[in-house]
Amino acid sequence: MAAPVFGLIGLSHRTADVAVRERMALDEEARVRLHEGLEEAGIAESVVLSTCNRTEIYGVGRPGMDVERTERALVEVLCRNRGVPVAAVQAHLYRMRGIDGVRHLFRVAAALDSLVIGEPQILGQVKDAYRAALEQGRVGPLLARFFEKAFKVAKEVRTDTEVGSGQVSVGSIAVDLARQVFGNLGESTVLLLGAGEMAEAVARALSAAGARQVVVANRTLERAMVVAERHGWTGRSLEDLSGLLVEADVVIASLGAPQWVVDQARMREALRSRRNRPVFLVDIAVPRVVEPSIARMEGAYLYNLDDFQEVVQGHLRRRAADLSKAEGIIAREVEGMQRYLRVLEVQPVLAALGQRAAEIREREVARAIRELPQDSPEVRKVIEGLGHSLASKLMHDPLCVLRESAWSGEGGDVAEAARRLFRLPEDGAESGQEARAPAVGEEKTCGH
Prior knowledge:
Blueprint: E1 6-12, H1 18-24, H2 28-40, E2 43-50, E3 54-61, H3 67-82, H4 86-89, E4 94-97, H5 98-109, H6 121-135, H7 141-160, H8 170-182, E5 189-193, H9 197-208, E6 213-218, H10 221-230, E7 234-237, H11 241-247, E8 250-253, H12 264-274, E9 279-283, E10 300-304, H13 309-318, H14 320-371, H15 377-407, H16 411-421
Parallel strand pairs: 5-6, 5-8, 6-7, 8-9, 9-10
Antiparallel strand pairs: 1-3, 1-4, 2-3
Helix pairs in contact: 2-3, 5-7, 5-14, 7-14, 8-9, 11-12, 14-15, 14-16, 15-16
């Protein structure tokens, strides 16, 4: 069979605005259904990553599926899962295959493709996506190798560079925007909506910025109290939201909800009670929870993730040298993975050559034993050992040349020559023999 095909499809803050991203975002239940749909569509392995800034599927097609068919299945299953026509998101989707997909995964895990370069949350999100796929039985040898290597690359980038130093998160950017408007946040009343992981990152950034009058509001009051008390602030229930909006100068929303939490009517009433005092709102939730039309209200200044670019660009300029070093780490690891993928491409021929040698050995050993005037366990053992030794020595050089040619990028031509010389079937392996990913270290076993 042909070598397995790896590809990924997705959209992110680089290709789609927040309105599109929130339509394609996946909760846990949707991810489970998506994995099931991918399996039905012929995708042998899959990992689904969905964050506030990206939705991606990493997939490996079943033997016999080419790249185009694999990519088409990934797109169609995702769109069907989200109830969105393919045509509606086609322009926002990117498709990558082979080593380009591996490079992208490494950069995503290392937070080099994030809206905020170096932000720490993405590695945990990639690990969670991988763990969920493992639990659902959707990870095989190929994705296991790619993702385990991605985690090591991300750790090296974080350890050996300063890309992730300081306040680097979506939450910190939200706070930076608020500081640009109000200056000293120590004199402002801040309302933080939500108490999850992202909200905690916002809380840390607010504390570092000197914010003292902060109210953390959450559906679960106990959770709001935990986050608030950690910084000496106040925790409240979301049921008190109308009154809290009247007092807040800055509102940062980071929570999940099926509908608008801050809608037009509630905001209009709050602005009336504030008597023309302006309010600054930042919605970093996906899907958004602050109704976008609030941005048109006098006295309300609403920002979302798509408005972060100016602050992000300044962040990139400050970290240019570390970004270059991080990209160098990734380039080195991608080169090593390229050798692995090249060997994978010729693995069907390697498997077929091994099978052909085994068949010839078994046939000739059996014939030699039949022609012996007298058979015995000792003689049989000697002949079988001789047959195994001859086959191994005769196949050693052809197999090594094929692997070495793959490393140098000439594997296709040499594999075709091997097929013709040894009369191997066109698909590279005998009937019933599936291609497999080479084991760790197997691509380096040739020696003379």
